[in-house]
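Render Penicillin-binding protein in 3D.
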Amino acid sequence: NSNVLLLTNGDLTMPDMTGWTRDDIVAFESLTNIKVEVEGNGFVKSQSVTSQTAIDKKTKVQVKLDSENTNSS
């Protein structure tokens, strides 16, 4: 149940991080060089940048984690 991140040539858009783990966020930061400020533990519950929004290295992203996975199937 891991996320797969794929970086292509082109503009970056903010993914929907709902349900992501801290490891997923670290992988996103490493791949994109965009810093994500994390609050809490568990799984992403909310994010400051709406998904599908254009982002770049200057974008400030904040996510809040909660111990309950709100994106489970």
